[in-house]
Amino acid sequence: AQSVTQLGSHVSVSEGALVLLRCNYSSSVPPYLFWYVQYPNQGLQLLLKYTSAATLVKGINGFEAEFKKSETSFHLTKPSAHMRDAAEYFCAVSGNQGGKLIFGQGTELSVKP
Amino acid sequence: GAVVSQHPSRVICKSGTSVKIECRSLDFQATTMFWYRQFPKKSLMLMATSNEGSKATYEQGVEKDKFLINHASLTLSTLTVTSAHPEDSSFYICSAIAGVAEKTQYFGPGTRLLVL
Q1: Helices (H), strands (E): how many in chain B?
Q2: Among the four residues A29, A46, A76, B63, which has the most C-beta atoms within 10 Å?
């Protein structure tokens, strides 16, 4: 079985500050891991993905994530937050069954001016 | 690349009527499409997995006679909410993957359904 836990349903940072969104996973097979962003009333946009290549993955909009097998983590970071980064962020792991994704509960990121 | 569209983006209907939502992969062939439902401030709930040319696989608790899914071509899947009721009001999102070995899902922009 696979599962994803996102620590913190809401994270607030100041503009220019470091963004850290936490994601821990559980998987019985080598996982494929994803971070998606969702802006209000929109679908999900792929930020980045880990597919068993480099453990440090760079994505769009300055985000990156590091796969740490020993910690079963895939935390999302960005050195300097922008107001436009305010959105809902979802971590997901690919299941064993035909491409299904298991999603975390989501983390709402707020950015204060 | 990897663009998925949905139509309509927003629909309001009367209770008891049926509503069809289309999901299209615009620049790739989607062997598999997924339909999700999302409640306010909540994560996505997978409703069903749709493979081109075969019957959809529904998640536990999802009524297949109420949520009819058709995946007639490699670029189009449709979700029909039959005899809609106010409790069916929600945000419906589709996604698509290209190829059996592919793991990355690309999502549509979503459809907001309001049943009066």
Answers
A1: 0, 11
A2: A76
DSSP three-state, residue B88: helix
- Please give the distance of CA B63 from its chain centroid, rounded to a whole number: 14
Mutate to test the interface with A, among B46, B93, B100, B105 (most CBs of A within 10 A): B105
Indicate whether A90 pLDDT > 70: yes
> How far from A98 is each of A47, A82, B99, CA to CA, in Å?
21, 36, 10
Structure tokens of B107? 């999502």
- Output the average pLDDT for chain B: 92
Q: What are the structure tokens assigned to B48, written together?
A: 């069903």
Which letter does DSSP use for residue B54 in this model?
A: S
The length of chain B is 116
Q: How confident is the model at residue B102 (pLDDT cuts 50, 70, 90)?
A: confident
Q: What is the 3-class SS of chain A, one letter each residue?
A: CCEEEEECCEEEEECCCCEEEEEEEECCCCCCEEEEEECCCCCEEEEEEECCCCCEEECHHHCEEEEECCCCEEEEEECCCCHHHCEEEEEEEECCCCCCEEECCCEEEEEEC
